[in-house]
Specification:
This is HupE / UreJ protein. Keywords: Membrane, Transmembrane, Transmembrane helix. It holds the Pfam family HupE_UreJ_2. It comes from Ectopseudomonas guguanensis. The chain is mainly alpha-helical. It has one domain. The protein is about 80% helix and about 0% strand. The protein has ten helices and no strands. Helix 4 packs parallel to helix 6, helix 4 packs across helix 9 and helix 5 runs antiparallel to helix 9. The chain is globular, with a radius of gyration of 20 Å. The N and C termini lie far apart (about 50 Å).
């Protein structure tokens, strides 16, 4: 078996280091913030407010919904993957609408119907959605199976699952039935406002990045980093599920 020349081996090692740097940096950052920012986690102050509030309180719930989305790294990772190769605003609007519709349906339905699912399971599935979208962007399904899944259907389905994640958390706080529907709708409006704000920032950054020569050079690495983060989210939640038994 022939070995690479020294210069070729050195170049290969350097290339591997460059391709692995972003995924490893992403993993390190997520490991640093996860203890304080679990997927769908709610700050202590917001928990107390939700538990103690009664009656219709639209603006506070809109604020908390927007805050949740802007700080929800799992949602943002998935949305980042969804729009990664979308260039037309019409396409961006379609996929974001599908995600928002799915998210809204299960958030409201889950709380009002009192459907309880382990938050660890839901958050692990959300981590899987990030992995799925990264693989989709990398063209893995076409190469492996010769089949391209319907990305619109997948976006809607994962939107439904993301909504259940937050619905499960809200139920744990025993929110008051007084003004429940109005407050839930306000919270969901806040979530969508936060999503639009976060998406706007992502689109601006993506727009600048796409104009540079480095976009296509680093597109593969960026999606590998996203996939690594999704696997980390899955592992973290599965470990939590096992430990909590």
């Amino acid at each position: 078996m022939k070995s690479l020349p020294l210069s070729g081996a050195t170049a290969l090692i350097a290339r591997l280091r460059r391709s692995l740097f972003l995924p490893l940096l992403t993993l390190a950052l997520l490991m640093a913030v996860m203890p304080e920012a679990l997927a769908h986690g709610v700050p202590e102050g917001d928990k107390g407010f939700i538990q103690e509030s009664t009656g219709v309180m639209l603006m506070p719930f809109i604020y908390m919904g927007a805050k949740h989305m802007i700080t929800g790294y799992d949602h943002l990772l998935f949305l980042f993957g969804v729009i990664f190769f979308l260039y037309r605003l019409k396409d961006v609007g379609l996929y974001v609408t599908l995600f928002a519709v799915g998210h809204s349906i299960t958030l409201l339905f889950g709380v009002l119907s009192n459907i309880s699912i382990s938050s660890y399971v839901i958050d692990a599935i959300i981590g899987f959605s990030v992995v799925y979208k990264a693989l989709d962007n990398l063209g893995a399904f076409q190469r492996w199976f010769g089949y391209q899944p319907d990305t619109r259907a997948a976006t809607l389905i994962f939107g439904l699952l993301h909504g259940f994640g937050l619905a499960t958390k809200i139920q744990e706080f025993e929110i008051s039935p007084d003004g429940l529907i109005a407050n839930l709708i306000a919270f969901n409006v806040g979530v969508e406002i936060g999503q639009l704000l976060a998406l706007g920032g992502i689109l601006i950054l993506m727009g600048y990045w796409r104009r540079t020569a480095s976009f296509w050079r680093h597109a593969y690495t960026a999606n590998v980093a996203m996939m690594s983060a999704g696997f980390l989210l899955m592992g973290y939640q599965i470990t939590g599920l096992i430990v909590s038994q």
